[in-house]
Amino acid sequence: MKNLNKESKIDLLLFLLPPLVVLSIFVIYPIIGTVVLSFISKGTFSLSNYYEVLTESIPLKALILTRLEPTPPWGALIHNAVWILISVPAVVLLGMILAYVLRYVFGSSFVLGTVFLGMVLPGVVSGLVIRFMFDDSIGIFPRIFAVLGVPMLSKTWTIYPQTALLALILGSIWLWLGFSVTLYSAGLDSIPSSMIESALVDGASQWQIFAKIIVPQLRPVTTVVILMTVMWVLKIFDIVYVVTGGGPGGSSTVLAMIMYMYFASSLEYHKAAAVAVILALLTLIPAYWYIRIVLKGERE
Amino acid sequence: MWLKPGFWYRKSFFQKYGLSEPKSYDEFVQLLEKIKSIQGVKNPIASGDGMGWPLSDIVEHFIIAYGGPQMQLNLISGKTRFTDPSVRRVFENYLVPLLQKKYFSEPIEWTTVIPKWWAGEYGLYFMGTWITGMVEDPNDLDFFPLPESKGVVGGADYAFVPKYSKNVDAAVDFLKFLATEGQGVHASVPSGKIPTWTKVPVSQLWKPMQSVYTKITQRGMAILPDLDDSIGGDWQKLFWDQLKLLWVNPGALDSVLKTLESAQPKP
């Protein structure tokens, strides 16, 4: 800025002004407005909205249920955490393995196309596909478990509190796998072939190449996949709304669903804002690390 | 007016297997047992599922039949709580045993289950009168309410004339027609509706709805408001969701009633 003359500075400001105005109106103002709204309760500034949403015990609106049960409902925050714990390792492992294996397999484009389908389908359509996947009369999962003789899992998964959340998680893994495979495929392309050829000359097995060269070389991609998956899971809403509506008995609620319930069903906008702020703060943690990695990459 | 009058069945299905409409709760259970024993039948009753509302209609029908029409009204106003022993008795004595014996199917999307029910995978289906427009042959349809029922849920259509319309008088005149003679026209076509204007002759109604009208009026049944539609809001969604839980886990009755009561509006 210091080196610019007055005319250039004016030009720069003129270029920056339109996006700054748009950002201020459509991004910054709503964010500040939401945060302020979340602290207002009965006309006064307080933490009561946060207290009330965190201690709510009605299953369809609860963030944390204190009763300890072996099966859901546990509250949306716990459901989101379980979702992350299951889907992140699955998306990373499956994405990496599929991207690696499919490079050497005939007909891989068909498999890749099927995997990638989840990425391009609208959320509502994906939700319907997930419903079908876990339906006892036409779904692949109940049929497999029927053949294996597991009665509990040969029913319609989405209508039982024990399996509804798991069905959504498995469905979401399919949806997000396309993203993971795409990133890992690009990552694999960037690994110098000389590295693998040298390992082959030294007598390394395929497994050793995968474990000692491919996996470490893909570490930056893995970090991005983990962070993006965590952010995606924290924000997930559409498939939950379509497949289970958060039920049965609140066993598959998620944070975004609770926010929607407060906003669109009970019209408690202040509480909806409080949940939105909690959700945003949780999303900011992986987002912060992601931005750090991106900036570090740019500097290098 | 639409109604949620009871359990629909195919006349041909009943004729084929020598079934008849029950005259008491015990006969109703016997009928379910007979249907269950028919080869190819998955469950005697198909349970429709949308966001959960078809299940709530079934529950309301049981409340009206075995708790009485006043219980339905008191639950709406909040005077009677869901944890009240009288309400619990309706569930415990009449509905839960049927769920435990798997007489009801698992909740299935309410439109996709219709062809399955029609094909004989299920014997009965609880639904509103709009079902008459959703089946292959509405003349093969008939229904029965729970034998002890003295009321059914029904809802009228409403029309509004904006105050600032150009032709308010003409619009009001047209609505007067729709509310009187016009109902005869509306009910004479496949609309699944019955007229609230009592001067419409039964013979003018669309044939499948004549049976509905006759059965309801002959029994002198009260037309009652829909419980969850009347309360609405968050509680309605909670009601639907908790019933979906009850359907697959009847043992959770006390927890379900407690949850419903905790959010039930106070009078």
**Biggest sheet overview of chain A:** 2 strands, antiparallel
Average pLDDT figure of chain B: 94
**What order do the helices and strands of chain A follow?**
HEEHHHHHHHHHHHH
What low-confidence regions of chain B span 5 or more consecutive residues with pLDDT below 50? none
Give the N-to-C terminal Cα separation of chain B: 28 Å
- How many beta strands in the DSSP annotation of chain A? 2
Brief synopsis:
The complex is a heterodimer of chains A (300) and B (267). By secondary structure, chain A is an all-alpha fold. Helices cover 71% and strands 1% of the residues of chain A.
Description:
Chain A has a two-stranded antiparallel ribbon. Chain A is flat. Chain A is built from 13 helices and two strands, in the order H-E-E-H-H-H-H-H-H-H-H-H-H-H-H. Chain A is mostly helical. Chain A has a single domain (50-191, 223-299), classed as MetI-like fold. The two termini of chain A are 23 Å apart. Chain B is α/β, with parallel strands linked by helices and 267 residues long. Helices cover 48% and strands 15% of the residues of chain B. Chain B has twelve helices and eight strands. Chain B has helices spanning 11-16, 25-36, 53-67, 69-77, 85-100, 113-118, 168-179, 181-188, 207-218, 227-231, 233-248, 253-263; strands at residues 2-4, 6-10, 43-49, 104-109, 122-127, 141-144, 151-155, 222-224. In chain B, the strands form two sheets. A five-stranded mixed sheet of chain B has the order 4-3-5-2-6. A three-stranded mixed sheet of chain B has the order 1-7-8, covered by helices on one side. The longest helix of chain B is centred in the middle third of the chain and has 16 residues, at 85-100. The interface between A and B is medium-sized, with 21 and 22 residues.
